[in-house]
Amino acid sequence: MVVVVVMVVVVVVVVVVVVVMVVVMVVVVVVVVVVVVVVVVVVVVVVMVVVMVVVVVVVVMVVRREVMRG
Q1: What mean pLDDT comes out for the span 7-30?
Q2: What is the pLDDT of residue 70?
Q3: Radius of gyration over alpha carbons of the chain, in Å?
Q4: How many angstroms separate the CA atoms of 31 and 25, rounded?
Q5: Distance CA 61, CA 58 (A)
Q6: For the chain, what are the domain ranges?
Q7: Which residues cross the membrane (predicted)?
Q8: Integer CA distances (angstroms), 57 to 17, 30, 45, in order
């Protein structure tokens, strides 16, 4: 009887440990995916801002040159 109780307790503990490990792995994967998505979004926004600034600077320089020729 005692052996059966000990085996049941051991099985329950092992199942709980496995479930906790799986939950921790899922949480880690979700956090990594969220971080990667945030980094990609930030990089895309920075690239868009840089491209817009370059376009504005080029347009302003061309307009100034045309006005100077004017």
Answers
A1: 98
A2: 66
A3: 30
A4: 10
A5: 5
A6: 38-65
A7: 7-32, 38-63
A8: 60, 40, 18
